[in-house]
Structures are given as structure tokens and as C-alpha cells.
Write a structure and sequence with these properties.
26 strands; single chain; alpha/beta; 6-stranded mixed β-sheet; about 900 residues; elongated
């Protein structure tokens, strides 16, 4: 049995979009059938019904009202589904046969436009990743704002950092990605994105280049500035093809293809972003309690996204940093200008996303009013910026177009309080269009006009019983009884003869009938047409609007940094390129805002590339080591985004990267052991850090045995301190007090500790960093503060005394130290030029010729760390026995 014609057309359309749910417009509803209906019923709670479709069984069906489609659409897309929207392309009243329907857009997690489902402070990217020629080509776009980027990288680690940095909602890949070794399931644990394969034809190099050149109106890739990115260009062309194929419009708001190059910004890997809690907290994934939460006092959604980008992409160019600092400082000093600017910024809507909806032709009349109200602020902003002196603010002033012509057009055409829908009337102002005015008047004044004509005709003809009547067959007509038909004028046209009367029409009455009967439908259609014309006029000025919106966003971000600097007593840091970080009375920008009662205890930091390369920081847990180290990293990052910093004074060197090894909670959830995560992150740091990097290491080696852990921690310090191998500025917190022996033995290593005050069996953390190593770990005191039961504490104290009496701890420290030395010597055999720098003091204390001879005969090339430990233990036992 064949299906009905409507269902046949539905199934034909569904076949074209097999990977999508299909929203099929039928009257006032978008309907779903069969499996789509069952999924929608299950996922978003729609009532499942059925529809006769010509088969024995009714087709499962559910639907959503057309006026509420965005809400249901967003719910499905947020769950990872793609939805194809099939719209009616003609008026059902005028259609001959089946109403023509076409898919007008495919909505996916990376192309969602619903403003209620978007986080206005974050970009929502769709990303294309392709693997070819042992490289990754990457492109990503925010279709709501028109931002479009491409880049390339060589390693899986670099790709991971890019994906974590930009957190796309959707990734499309080529088929070769399956052999790249990239662990996408693991990545989805960190970043919630949907993934799919794009059509292989989109990744053909010739097509990719052609699409890019056509879209951006460029003759060559050189003109676009992307000719050096072979694989990146293919990824960008493929992504553009995907968007053109699914969005069904010309994407005119995507006006520029930008190259994202890591050389322009500080590199921040995923661990560092997580550990420093730059934009979301580790535990709750919230903005409050992050650096962004402290610095974000923006007034606009565009400004909030720009400030987030500042934090995620710290600058490396000193001139650019200083230019941003100059702008922040000027607004800090010119309080009146800044506050008036912020008042004018406050009413501005999200111009970038409004423009995106305009270009998609989904903007409604209220969106245009929001657009008008926003751009009406631009002339006022220009007045405030006119007197500014900093180069960056002057440049932003020059970028802003007041857009007065567009504001004037909307002001003349669109009513101040229009409806949301475009078919409801009440959109166009009186006086803007004569035809609209006449239709509107006909709609409201039709009865009055008929009464006027009736009175006029009675007076003209002298027929006092003449009446205007209406029926569905003839419409409006003049009815004259037979007794007066001889007085009927010659211009009356007979329409019908009755037993006792005649019915007539006149040209004027017919004209009025046309106006009255079709007035409402014609009015709504014409208003929609004029609205679309106004919207398309704005669409034609996309580049002017984008430049102004981007300038406004940057002004907002700079003003926010200025406000925070004033409120929180920040100072302008000096910026150097000599490898020196000097901070006087620095404060943690987030922690100091979270403290309600106790004041934050400030601390100094002194690091450089020469004599102050590594700070070994000892002290008990809870004393503030991690806070201090994160503070130094955050202040360095803040300085490089052009922000002022919480300190009395600061002189900060530009760092190419900040590395942190602090916690492993996220990776533990992925099934990796603490120690494995720790070593993986340490390996990443040692492989990728440079002498211009800042490294934060907290408790390296704690995930394994004491001997192994101490040996690894010692070796890591040696490696970092060696200027021929690394020589990075490093803060190294540890419980291994043995590492304090490295001060004086290795150049550039210095000891610091957190000051502590003992009160009987209790301890008070003073939170102050001082020179020197900690003499005790205060573990039992910390356990007491944490509320460990008293019997456990008492037993722990007994065990400590026993261990001290038997000298177990002392012997363990010595053996671990000797093992570390042996490991260092193993490496030094391979690198003879490092002997002088790395030679430690152990051999200076061993004078027995026999022992020295035995050591000289050891084959260090083949000896494992465990062999070294056992050999040294045996040698130590010999010496102790002789004593």
C-alpha cells in the first residue's frame, strides 16, 4: 500500500538528511515522524501520537508549535542531535496541490543560534580538524559572531591544547583522523563536544581553496595571508563548505579569515588552565572563584567575550602589552570619562550576535529595535573617546562608525514596541509607507468609510432607502428598492435583480471592497516585506557594523580592567624581557577577594634567569605554598594581558609559557593513577619548557615510594637548574626537606619556607614566605587542625619518637640523597661538560681510599637506580661498621 503524497515527500526529504532529526512544517506545527518522533518524545518529553499515512499502521508522530520551536530545538541540539528544519516555502492558501517545503537550515551543537541557549560571555565554536601529511589542519568558526580562524600543529599534545583552549561545541573531522592516534573519547571528558565526519569531497584541496577565495573575494591565498598554511587552508575550506551546506545562506557576516599563531600569545596547556582556574573552577566549573570572575566587570556580552580572550591568550609582544596598559591607565586616571563610557556601554546589546541573526534572516522586529538602541550609543561613546590620548584608545576611536544612517532608518520604519513575529502586523510606523497607512486605515476604519459612501450616495441620488449590504457571493453592494430604481445613476452597475429590489456596485465601492476585505492580509504581508527590506539594508553594512562592535567590545574590556585596578588597589607592573620577575607584596587576585574577615598576607617574589632561577619552597600542608605559587603565575599572566596587578610594585619578564603541576583530580576521574598523571605532566613540562618559561611544581614525586619520589624530585630540580638543558624560572614546593641541600650546591637554587608559629602542640600558619628551609613538617599539627581523632594523633606522636630513636628517617634520607647523586652521575657520564655544575658534596666527605676505589670501579653506564641504591646502602653500612 503506497503512503500518502505528504508522507512520501517527508520520507524523500528525510532520506537526504539521514544523520539529522527532521522538523517538518505542517501548518502551525513542526512535526516529527517514525524514529525521530520516538527520539523527541523520549529526549524532550513530547507526547507521542500517530498519523494515518496510507499504511496499515499509523506513523508515530509528535510536534512542536512553530512559535516555540527554538526552545525544543535547543534542547535536542544540546543533547548532541542535529536537526534539519523543513519550512513551507509558499502560502498554503495559494498552493496548488502539496505545499512546497524545503530544508532551510541544519542546526547542530556548533551552529545553534538561539540566544536563550547561548552563554553570552563565551564563543560557541564549530571546529574542523583534519589529519594529513603528518600534520593537523585546524579551523574554527563562531557562526553567531562571524569569527573564523585557521591554524596548524604537528603533535597530538598541541592539538589537545588547542581544543581545550577554544572548547568547541562541535568538531567535524576527515576520515584520516582515525589513524592519527588522537583520543577523542578522552578529549570529550574534558570538553563537551559532538563529533562527526564531514563529506570527503569537502577536503579536496582545489575545492577548499576555491571556496575560500570565492567567499572572501580574494584572488590568491597570499591576498588572504594564509598561503603558508597548506593543511590549515584545506581545513578552513572544508569547514566553510560544511557551513554553506548546512546553513543554506551566504554567511556574509564571516568577513575575515584570521590565522591563529601560537607565536603571538603565551601558550597555556590544559593543565595550566585548569590548575590556575583562569575561567572556571576545578571543582564546580563555575566562573566565581576564577581570575575571570575577578576581572570581569564588563557591561556588554561582547566585552565579556573579549576579556575572556585576553585571559586565555596573554600577549608576548612588549609593545602590545604596554599599549594595553596605557589604555587601562588612562581610563584609571580619567574616572569621569570611564564611568560615562560605561553608562553608554550598559544599554548596548550583543551587536555581534544580533548581526549574526540579521545575516541568517532570523532577526525579528524586536531584534532590530535592540540593534537600533545599541548603535544609538555609538555617537556618545565617540564623544567620550575624542579627548583620549593613549594610542590604543585613539585607534579604537577611529574604528567606530556611528552608524547614524542605520539608526535613522530603523527609527523611521519600525515601531518602538513591535511584536516578535513578522506576520502579526504592528511592525511599520505610521507615515513610513502610504500603502501600509491605507491598509491600516482600511482595516480599522472600513465600516466608517462604508457609512460615508452610503450617506453620500443617498444625498447624490435622493434615494433615502439606499443601503450598502454584504454577502459572500457579491461582496459589498448598493441595494435599491423597486420604487426608487428609476432614480439610479448611470454609473451604477447592476449585479443582481431581486423580487423587490435591485443590487448595484460602483467603481468606488469595488475599490473600497478590495481595501477592506484584503486589508489585514495585505497589511501583514506588506509590513513583513518592508521589514525584510530594512533588515537586508542592515545586512549590506555588515563590515561597518562588525568593526564598530569589535571596537566597542575592546573598550569595554579595557574599562573593566581599569575598574578592577581601582577597586582592588592594583598597580601597573613594569614589563621587561630580561628574564626577571620581581614582585613586592604581591597578593593572590582571587583569594584576597574571597576572604571576608582576615586580610590577605602579601608576599614577595624574586626570580630571574641567573642567580634566582629556582625557589625550593618547604613547609607544612595548608600553610599557603600552593596559593603563593599560583599567585606568582597569575600575576605574571595578568601583566601579559595588559592588566594591573595586586602588589605594591612589580617588574615582570615576558614568559613564553606558564607550566603548572599541581593536582590530578580530573585525570584520576579518567582512570589514570596519581603518579602516572604526575609523571606525564612533568614529562610534558621538561620537553616543552624553555629558559623563558615559568614553571610551578607542587609536590613532585609524592605518588610513589619515598626513595623513588625524592630521587625523581631531585633529578627534576637538577635538570631545570641546568642552563644548558633548561634553566627556566621555577617555584618548586616540596615535603622532601632533603632538597634544601641543593642550595649552594647548584647555582641558581634558593630555599624558601612558609613561616609558622608554634603554640604548644598547635601551630599557627603566618602565610609569609621567608628565606631558608623549613626545619619541621608539622604533619601531626596539621592533622590536629583537620580534626583527626585524638587517639590517632597520640599514636602518631609515639611512632615519630620511635622512628627518630632508631634513626630510620635519617637513614632513609641519606640513602635517597645518595641515590639521587648516583642518578645525577649516571647522566653526567653522558654529558661530561656538566660535571662542574652538577657535582654535589657527598664525595667531598668520603676520604677512605678503598671506598673511593670501589666507587670508581662501578659501571655507571649499566647500573639501574635500584642497583645504585643497593650499592650505596652497602657502602654506607661498611662505613658505619668501621666507625
Amino acid at each position: 500500500m503506497p503512503v500518502t503524497p505528504m508522507m512520501a515527500k517527508y520520507l524523500e526529504t528525510k532520506k537526504e538528511y539521514p544523520d539529522c532529526m527532521l522538523f517538518y512544517r505542517l501548518g502551525d506545527f513542526y512535526e516529527m515522524f517514525y524514529e525521530d518522533a520516538e527520539i523527541a518524545s523520549r529526549e524532550i518529553g513530547l507526547t507521542l501520537t500517530g498519523k494515518d499515512c496510507g499504511l496499515d499502521e499509523r506513523a508515530p508522530m509528535c510536534g512542536v508549535p512553530y512559535h516555540a520551536v527554538d526552545t525544543y530545538l535547543s534542547k535536542l541540539v544540546e543533547k548532541g542531535y542535529k536537526v534539519a528544519i523543513a519550512e513551507q516555502m509558499e502560502d498554503p492558501k495559494l498552493a496548488k496541490g502539496l505545499v512546497k517545503r524545503e530544508v532551510i537550515r541544519v542546526v547542530s551543537p556548533g551552529t545553534l543560534l538561539d540566544q536563550n541557549a547561548l552563554d553570552e560571555t563565551k564563543n560557541r565554536y564549530i571546529m574542523c580538524v583534519m589529519y594529513e601529511r603528518a600534520m593537523f589542519g585546524i579551523s574554527f568558526c563562531d557562526v553567531t559572531t562571524g569569527e573564523f580562524f585557521l591554524t596548524e600543529c604537528h603533535t597530538k599534545e598541541q592539538l589537545t591544547d588547542i581544543i581545550v583552549r577554544f572548547a568547541p561545541s562541535e568538531i567535524v573531522v576527515n576520515e584520516q583522523m582515525s589513524i592519527s592516534g588522537v583520543d577523542f573519547p578522552m578529549l570529550r571528558e574534558r570538553v563537551n563536544f559532538s563529533q562527526s565526519h564531514a563529506d570527503p569531497k569537502f577536503f579536496k584541496e582545489d575545492l577548499a581553496k576555491k571556496n575560500l577565495l570565492t567567499h572572501f573575494h580574494a584572488a590568491t591565498l597570499d591576498a588572504l595571508g594564509v598561503s603558508a598554511f597548506t593543511v590549515g587552508v584545506i581545513a578552513a575550506g572544508a569547514l566553510l563548505s560544511v557551513l554553506l551546506d548546512t546553513q543554506k545562506n551566504d554567511l556574509a557576516h564571516i568577513t575575515h579569515l584570521q590565522v591563529f599563531t601560537s607565536g603571538s600569545f603565551m601558550l597555556l596547556d590544559s593543565s595550566t588552565r585548569r590548575n590556575l582556574e583562569l575561567t572556571e573552577t576545578m571543582r564546580d566549573k563555575q566562573k566565581r572563584g576564577t581570575l575571570l570572575g575577578v576581572l570581569d566587570k564588563t557591561k556588554t556580552a561582547m566585552g565579556a567575550r573579549t576579556l575572556r580572550r585576553y585571559i586565555e591568550q596573554p600577549l608576548l609582544d612588549r609593545k602590545a602589552i604596554l599599549a594595553r596598559q596605557d589604555a587601562v591607565e588612562e581610563l584609571l586616571n580619567e574616572t569621569l570619562i570611564r564611568e560615562e563610557l560605561r553608562e553608554y556601554l550598559n544599554p548596548i546589546y550583543d551587536l555581534e550576535r544580533l548581526l549574526g541573526r540579521i545575516c541568517y534572516r532570523t532577526a525579528n522586529p524586536r531584534d532590530l529595535i535592540a540593534f537600533k538602541n545599541s548603535i544609538e550609543m555609538l555617537p556618545h561613546i565617540l564623544v567620550m573617546l575624542k579627548s583620549t590620548k593613549s594610542a590604543l584608545l585613539k585607534n579604537l576611536y577611529a574604528e567606530i562608525d556611528p552608524l547614524e544612517d542605520l539608526a535613522g532608518l530603523i527609527n523611521e520604519a519600525i515601531t518602538d514596541d513591535p511584536p516578535v513575529g513578522v506576520y502579526e502586523g504592528g511592525i511599520i510606523k505610521d507615515g513610513f509607507n502610504e500603502t501600509v497607512d491605507s491598509y491600516r486605515k482600511a482595516k480599522t476604519d472600513g465600516k466608517g468609510w462604508l457609512a460615508e459612501i452610503e450617506a453620500q450616495e443617498r444625498e447624490r441620488t435622493g434615494i433615502k432607502t439606499l443601503k450598502i449590504k454584504f454577502n459572500k457571493v457579491f461582496g459589498y453592494y448598493l441595494e435599491v428598492t423597486n420604487s426608487f430604481k428609476d432614480q439610479v445613476p448611470a454609473d451604477y452597475i447592476r449585479k443582481q435583480t431581486l423580487t423587490g429590489a435591485e443590487r448595484y456596485v460602483t467603481p468606488k465601492l469595488q475599490e473600497l471592497e478590495d481595501m477592506i476585505l484584503g486589508a489585514e492580509d495585505k497589511l501583514y504581508a506588506l509590513e513583513n516585506q518592508i521589514f525584510q527590506t530594512v533588515r537586508d539594508t542592515i545586512y549590506g553594512e555588515v563590515e561597518r557594523i562588525q568593526r564598530s562592535a569589535q571596537a566597542v567590545a575592546e573598550i569595554d574590556a579595557i574599562a573593566s580592567l581599569s575598574v578592577v585596578a581601582e577597586r582592588n588597589r592594583y598597580v601597573r607592573p613594569k614589563i621587561n624581557e630580561k628574564g626577571r620577575i620581581t614582585i613586592k607584596n604581591g597578593r593572590h587576585p582571587v583569594v584576597e577577594q574571597m576572604l571576608e574577615k582576615d586580610p590577605f598576607v602579601p608576599n614577595d617574589t624574586e626570580l630571574d634567569s641567573d642567580d634566582q632561577r629556582i625557589a625550593i619552597i618547604t613547609g607544612p600542608n595548608m600553610a599557603g605554598k600552593s596559593t603563593y605559587m599560583r599567585q606568582t603565575a597569575l600575576l605574571t599572566l595578568m601583566a601579559q594581558i595588559g592588566s594591573f596587578v595586586p602588589a605594591d610594585e612589580a617588574d615582570i619578564s615576558i614568559c613564553d609559557r606558564i607550566f603548572t603541576r599541581v593536582g590530578a583530580s580530573d585525570d584520576l576521574a579518567m582512570g589514570q593513577s596519581t603518579f602516572m598523571v604526575e609523571m606525564t605532566e612533568v614529562a610534558n613540562i621538561l620537553r616543552n619548557a624553555t629558559n623563558k618559561s615559568l614553571i610551578i611544581l607542587d609536590e613532585i614525586g609524592r605518588g610513589t615510594s619515598t626513595f623513588d619520589g625524592l630521587s625523581i624530585a631531585w633529578a627534576v630540580v637538577e635538570y631545570i637548574a641546568n642552563t644548558k638543558l633548561l634553566g627556566a624560572k621555577t617555584l618548586f614546593a616540596t615535603h622532601y626537606h632533603e632538597l634544601t641541600e641543593l642550595e649552594g650546591a647548584i647555582p641558581g637554587v634558593h630555599n624558601y619556607c612558609i613561616s609558622v608559629k608554634e603554640q604548644g602542640d598547635r601551630v599557627v600558619f603566618l602565610r609569609k614566605i621567608i628565606k631558608g628551609g623549613a626545619d619541621k613538617s608539622y604533619g601531626i599539627q596539621v592533622a590536629r587542625l583537620a580534626g583527626v581523632p585524638k587517639p590517632v594523633l597520640e599514636r602518631a606522636e609515639e611512632l615519630v619518637e620511635e622512628l627518630i630513636d632508631t634513626d630510620i628517617l635519617s637513614r632513609a634520607r641519606e640513602i635517597a640523597s645518595y641515590a639521587a647523586v648516583s642518578m645525577g652521575n649516571t647522566r653526567r657520564v653522558k654529558k661530561q661538560d656538566d660535571v662542574d655544575q652538577n657535582q654535589l658534596t657527598m664525595f667531598d666527605t668520603v676520604k677512605d681510599d678503598d671506598v673511593i676505589a670501589e666507587i670508581r670501579e662501578l659501571n655507571l653506564q649499566t647500573m639501574t637506580p635500584l642497583d645504585a641504591m643497593n650499592t650505596l646502602y652497602r657502602i654506607q653500612s661498611k662505613l658505619n661498621n668501621r666507625i
